[in-house]
Amino acid sequence: MRSKYTYDESGVTFFYYALTVLSLVVAPATVYMLFGKKNSDAGAKPKTPKVRVRKPKKKSATPNLKLGLILAGWALIFLLSYKVKTTEVMEAKMWDPYEILGIDNGEKEETITRAYRKLSLKWHPDKVGKDMKEKAGEMMAEINRAHKTLTNAEARENYEKYGNPDGMQTQSMGIALPKLLVEAHTSPFVLALYGLVFGFIMPFYVGRWWYNSTRYQKDRILNPTMSTFFKNIREHISQRNLIELLTAASEFAEDDLKYRPADEAALKALVEKIRRVSQIYANDMFSAPKKFTGKDVWKANILLHAHFFRVKIDDGELADQQQQVVMTALTLVHRGLLQISTTHNWYTCSTLLMNISQMLVQGVYCYDAPLIQLPGITWENQPQIFKEKNLYSNHQLMRMTAGEQRKALSLLSDKQFEEAIQVAKTIPRLEIARVLLTVVGDKAITPASIVTLIVKVRIANAPNKIVPRGKGVAVADIEDISDEDTAAIESFVADFGKREKETKQTPPEAYCPYFAGRKDSQWWLSFANYQSGKLVVPPVRISDLVSERVVVLQFQAPPQKETYRFHLSIKSDSYIGNDVMQEVQMTVVDRSTLPSEPAIVDDISEPEEDSIAAQMAQLRGQQAGARRGDDDSSDED
Predict the structure, then answer these.
(1) How confident is the model at residue 586 (pLDDT cuts 50, 70, 90)?
(2) Which whole-number Å values give the CA distances from 205 to 142, 179, 293, in the listed order?
(3) Helix then strand then coil, % of the chain, to nearest 5
(4) pTM
(5) From CA 394, how far away is CA 396, in angstroms rounded?
(6) Looking at residue 606, what DSSP letter applies?
């Protein structure tokens, strides 16, 4: 069958095509714009007061352009929908001789002839008036053609096969494109548009996507950075060397953070300030990294230590870069260095990295007094407060009476004192309420068994003491369950996953005035072997601790019978001096100490003698006896 292609002259089919393609593009783009990726903690707007803030970014024209394109797309969709609804579609009508003659399909030739004669008398040109002669002529032509089709064998066969008495005809197929696109005077513009879209725009965006996907890892860390971290991190590494390794990240060599010769004078002045402060208050002279000697590394190191020692940067652009360096460093610690360390089960290295996270958020140096996190407490007055009042931590301050607090912080003004006490009340004081090591279903821990660690932690000074216990679920408190109640422990562990999903809460924002972004207060739970210094399980990040939380972990018991000592530590990722640690002992005993399992009672009764089962059993016994007899006779032979 030959085909004839025609273009859409009226534009009806093109409207359908354009509406479909446009909807497939505009609808997903709208959903992504409304419900796409949200800002992270560091990028969200903070609610706590800030000493250091970043300059507001210049509003990019890209979001406005995207919004304009999406609105234009929806306008086109509504316009095309209106066109589709109001444009009349001319449907092709099939030629039917039976319909023309007014008879049913499959009628006999006599009926066809009778209908033909009747219509001929009605529409013969000589039988109608002058005003109807033209229409009568057209009708007689159709009537004669229908009669010939149904009475001539060859014409009828052609109609039944091809739908036309004259045989196979050319099939006309429409293309949902206006004819304007293929006309000679518009073809150069159409070709130019095709070349622009498929020769430049599409390769550009595909290439950019591919370049970025191969340049970054899934956590949006540059591949060269992770390579540097993998090659240089060690289990036994100092905190100073970890900070130097952190500043060697390729992110700090990007265009917006890299070293520029114009920064040299400001950086030199900043180094002198840092060295002076570090020598007086940290007993550690600040110096350049020894292993990583690049200019970009040196600049990042200076900006980080200026943050740790709270040295003010006069240059506005450099101060803004410092906050960007701090936020980037926090991401690199959490998603880069800490992941590598915990993958190797390095407990000491992981702990040092968690300390660096606290330093980055609070803007303090290692081993600083926790009291320096309060407003009004500075490098200058903190040593004096410690020397005269023996006051070191926030928790120590909150255990004092109001009069003792005011006397201890007598160096502060009344306003500064009120602010300091108000902030000290909000800094969480963590407690380990319960620790339980058990093998679910057993009363003892045996070699190579699966041990379940249950830890309950609470914020002692949480403002809200009401803890959701699940919807319609009777939940037992792990503190009320004894170590010997294996059934209650098993039930608690079985229901834990369901309760955990139902009790997710939003953590409070951490008070961190020297960190420009928003930071929610989160915690790491680590469980390490005391003898080997290795992590038993990877640290668990508790991101929803508001008042209290239960963490359940599982690991395999050692194969030897012995008493093992473990370190259970819970560290804040935002505050210094809030970490808690507890020593946990676990005794692995022999399996023989477990009570024997109850014997399984066989309740299957013997079949009755006259039953089919009894007859089959007797037959099997006879066959077995016959086989044994054959074997015995063969042995005798």
Answers:
(1) very high
(2) 60, 31, 36
(3) 50, 15, 35
(4) 0.72
(5) 5
(6) P
Q: Are 176 and 13 in contact (CB under 8 A)?
A: yes
Rounded CA gap, 452 and 114, in Å? 95
Token pair of 6, please? Answer: 């025609």
Cα–Cα distance for residue pair 521/592, rounded to 1 Å: 47
Task: Give the helix ranges, DSSP H, for 163-293.
Answer: 187-196, 202-215, 223-232, 239-247, 264-277
Q: Measure the CA–CA gap between 340 and 233, rounded to whole angstroms.
A: 8
Burial annotation 488-503 (CB, 10 A radius, 16+ → b, else e): ebeebbeebeebeeeb
Quote the CA–CA distance of 617 and 619 in Å, as a whole number: 5
| Best CA proximity match to 122, nearest among 101, 148, 103, 96 | 101
What tokens appear for 612 in the block? 């089919």
Q: What pairing do the DSSP bridges indicate for beta strands 450-459 and 430-438? A: antiparallel
- Measured distance between the N- and C-terminal CA atoms of the chain, rounded to whole angstroms: 89
Q: Which H, E and C letters describe 119-164, residue by residue?
A: HHHHHCHHHCCHHHHHHHHHHHHHHHHHHHHHHCHHHHHHHHHHCC
Q: Is 504 helix (H, G, I), strand (E, B) or coil?
A: coil
Determine the pLDDT at residue 636.
Answer: 43
C-alpha distances in Å from residue 144, one per residue of 140, 505, 552: 6, 85, 91
Residue indicated by tokens 């609105």: 71
pLDDT at residue 149, rounded to an integer:
85
